[in-house]
């Protein structure tokens, strides 16, 4: 019944990738010149893929909605990138990185993919250093490492608090070199609005030139989606304002299955919401939890006094503070994984102990660390983060505790891909956050950068060749073919319809409402009744949106409201699928916490007998519900156990 | 808080633009500058007006997309921040705020406050990279790099490519942008190999694209949201001079063969 075949190579997990590379089909250099590849997105995965494929000799077209490929949101990643180099001699290995990633993902990721990720992680560091990425170094001139996100080894490489920026600029420089050499053509300020299939294979895309409004057609022998995550479905998230699901969603509607959409990561250390006009949330690096202690008042009377400002946080004596993470998880304390820390903050705030003017924040206190390590040491470690906090909140964290609250940060779900990173549409690949494959139900810190670059630099260049080897006799495509005309017409009609809806409310009005529904019912904790309610409300919203949205400006000019309108229409549909996915998964795992399925101590309760599968959804047209396909996960290397951080 | 905004409106590159006045009220001091503009745009949309177009994306000061010239300064009055990190508490209640796009020949206006900065991409394409392919590189720890050098390279590499340096310069020079990239790579052994070629190609590209010469006023450093130092321009000049001398020598050798 299932159409899913992950095509995992035979053999022991440690040699699968080596064997694959030795036996996959190759494309002769003369033939590579005749093959076109489209890459959508220029973040870590897209830029590294486009650059590497250009180096190999393929003719690549790369697309981004930003004005420059250097601006993709990978740039905002702060903390670091993992690799199993074992430079600190603390016992790390590919197997341990693999093990930690599978366990951290709460046993909902595919073993073979994750093992490969751990294996290629070291090559990423080598390449980035060769590109001139200025990683932190020790006085001896060798690379520095730090422990991150509660890992027991120091395997994280970093460039101050700007690791994502430096890695992206490395990939951007490699991409720029290929553009200069003529191997890659850049199309900036383009929205990708549809995927074109010819005889069941992905053969192109339809784009809108955001400056002129022109609807454009682009053909290729293969299409690679690297369009990032869909956290903006929650309206407020740490994602960039323009981050969207539209390219992936268009592929879903053309037959690519969407996997585990409900697996979203809520990051525990973000700056709390200040009010109704808030447009996005800012992340504070997780590294702050290495030295900061998280607490709320123990007494409700103190909460009240804080709120009417009759006392300061420092007036609350030690015994009246509840260091709830240290209390609940004595072994890991403030360093428990992201999902655990986030839920614990929500639990305290829901119980009325939240601080700040809104009551939805907790303290992250550095007073002890400053006393222990000294002001200068703390400044050297976190100076830039403290400054950023002070700039946004106008509070000095050296004097008064920071206030933080969880925010949507990363989406583990995405387009279903097989071992070769190919979706269920032949010739359509998905890399980076856009696919579902490596993080299971929860992503560990410093793993996103690793996965994006692994996919783009070291995996896709092999696997796409295995597909394209059979395409060398396929001539370049004519974009006047009926499939392209039909798709372009469809996009043009959709835009016109949206523009002419004659409604009264702005796009943001609906986006905010969607965000509230998702946060309330499909956020940090979910339950069956809430999800049913969410389904009802989203359906209402979808109908209202079609009639009610107002889009000023024209179709054939720069029109940011029109761009947003397309993105939000897709987010509304995606929201519905996320809710359905959350509803069918009657267990708690990683970022997906169902109130009904928890241990007596309030921890996530997995159900491995029934739910150790990837939920992949197939589109059946708008009015018929999507159908669920299951990829059963096999665990041969790792024994499933309850995650415990106590 | 209430503000009067005087905003540059321009439909596209072909038509003339003008400053238009708007009033916004009830703005929270904790609002970011863009949230204040969002409020204005929501009002414009609801009243059948045309929302103001401006570039923005990450809204956390790192992507370099935002590019507003506020009260005569790139990214506004607060030192060391991008427009998106600016908050309304940095302005006085009732203040009149002038908002314009970057003004430089090499950055033509696309619409309202949005300019085309693809010239920066072209400069990087001219040589702002180390020519290595994926794979086949040595282990990352093969070449030790002195910590001081690596830190200095990181200082330069922190550039976000927003173009504030160009907007701040009376000559619309791109020297700080190029100086930062040249320095970042020239300071590292990995980038040293091509340093001479790189600086010449990037400078030649800059001249071609219509950027002016260094004004020597250090306005670029003063308005750089990432505090990139003008010493990077000095390093670039040094590299450039050395490269010119070196490439002359290379030519002589070739002739004598």
Helical percent range of chain A? 25-40%
User: Which strand order spans the largest sheet of chain A, edge to edge or round the barrel?
Assistant: 5-2-1-9-17
Regarding quaternary structure, how should these chains be classified? heterodimer
- Give the full name of the CATH homologous superfamily of the domain at 267-409 in chain A: Succinate dehydrogenase/fumarate reductase flavoprotein, catalytic domain
Describe the 3D structure.
With 646 residues, chain A is α+β, with helices and mostly antiparallel strands. Chain A has a domain at 267-409: Flavocytochrome C3, Chain A, domain 1. Helices cover 37% and strands 14% of the residues of chain A. Chain A contains 18 helices and 19 strands. In chain A, the strands form 5 sheets. Chain A has a 5-stranded parallel sheet, sandwiched between helices. In chain A, β7 (201-209) and β8 (215-219) form a beta hairpin. In chain A, α11 (367-373) runs antiparallel to α12, α15 runs antiparallel to α16 (528-548) and α15 runs parallel beside α17 (560-584). The longest helix of chain A is centred in the C-terminal third of the chain and has 25 residues, at 560-584. Chain A is globular and about 75 Å long. Chain A starts with 15 loop residues before the first helix and ends in a 14-residue tail after the last strand. Chain B folds into 2 domains: 3-111, Beta-grasp domain (Ubiquitin-like (UB roll), Roll); 118-256, Fumarate Reductase Iron-sulfur Protein, Chain B, domain 2, CATH 1.10.1060. Chain B has helices at 33-46, 118-125, 147-157, 164-168, 175-186, 189-192, 195-208, 219-223, 231-256, and strands at 3-9, 18-24, 68-70, 73-74, 96-101, 109-111, 114-115. A 5-stranded mixed sheet of chain B has the order 2-1-5-3-4. Chain B has a two-stranded antiparallel sheet with strand order 6-7. Chains A and B meet through α3, α5, α6, α12 and α13 of A and α1, α2 and α3 of B.
